[in-house]
Every structure is written in C-alpha cells, then in structure tokens.
Amino acid sequence: MGMDYEHDLLILMMVVARLTRVEADRRARQFGMTRAQWGILKQVFFNPGLTQRELANLLEVEPITAARLVDRLQKAGLIERRADAQDRRIWRLHLLPAATPYLEEIDRQRQDITAFITAGLAEADREVMTQALKLMKANLLRGTGGGMPKGCHEKLQENA
After folding, report:
1. Are 91 and 52 in contact (CB under 8 A)?
2. Which of 31, 69, 109, 134 has the fewest CB atoms nearer than 10 Å to its CB?
3. How far apart are CA 108 and CA 46, in angstroms?
4. Which of helix, strand or coil describes residue 62?
C-alpha cells in the first residue's frame, strides 16, 4: 500500500519546517550571521542571565557548540558573559546595546518570512493553522512529559 507523501501531514510539517530553516539561514547570512546566532540573541533577550548550559538545552546543541557560538557573539560585541554571583564557575549571558539593531532585524526578517511562506493564504486559514499547530504543540509537550526545560517552550515561537 503506497503512501501519498504530498498529502501526509507529518511529512509536510517537517518539510515546511526544514525549508523555513533554510530560508532563515539564507537571510541570516546576508547579515553576516547564522540562524543559530540569531536564536541565541533572541533567547538571551527573552531570558537575560541564562547560563550557557541552559542556552545549549534550549537550542538543542552540545554545550561546547553553544560556547563557540557565544564566543563569536562576544567577539562581535553583542553579548557578554558575567560571572554568577553565587557560583563563579557559571557564566550568565547578557545582551549588549549593540545587539539592539540585530534584534530589530531578526523581528523584521521573521515577519517577512511569515508573509513569504503564507502568501496566498487567507487570514482565516492562517488563524485555523495557528490554532491547530498550538494544539499539536500542547499535545506533544503533554505526551513527552514536557520535553523542554520548564518555562522555555513559550519563548520558542519568537525564534525564526
């Protein structure tokens, strides 16, 4: 029994997600950055003072990968590491003022990508899709016992 992959919801969602990441990567490169670096700036914006380990968990990368990405953003003067007041081995991440125009550009690009990928889609259909995806997300989070660090999943929709 053959499967019609063009009409398989799970496969379509995965393909659309992958193509959206490719488009975001392309746009980030135009600004000399990566989608991962954009993600870090947004995560630190929403969670000032988060640790590199927490950041790695949010981005689903190894801590060394997160550290290298933060190194580049620190060299660029967009982010700083501050020692934790209680535990000097822990570095807390904070944005620097130079990150502000990047955050504004990330938001502009996120809006542009949304408009690009939903071109030709009626507003009512967009609303139905949004509600459906929110329900699917809730089902997945409930089914996996959370799957993400507490309080983090609300922030993910802000990342492009």
Report:
1. yes
2. 134
3. 17
4. coil
pTM of the model: 0.77
Cα separations in angstroms, 73 against 44, 45, 114? 12, 13, 26
DSSP assignment of 48-61: TT-BHHHHHHHHTS
Q: Where are the domains of the chain?
A: 5-156
- Digit-by-digit pLDDT tens for the chain (160 residues) are 566 777 899 999 999 999 999 999 999 999 899 999 999 999 999 999 999 999 999 988 999 999 999 999 999 999 999 999 999 889 999 999 999 999 999 999 999 999 999 999 999 999 999 999 999 999 999 986 555 555 554 444 444 3
Q: How far apart are CA 24 and CA 111, in angstroms?
A: 11
Question: What span, in angstroms and rounded, lies between the C-alpha atoms of 48 and 73?
Answer: 15
* Total length of the chain: 160
Alpha carbon separation from 119 to 5, 24, 113, 123, 138 (Å, rounded): 23, 17, 10, 10, 26
**Rounded to the nearest 5°, which phi and psi values hold at 64?**
-65, -35
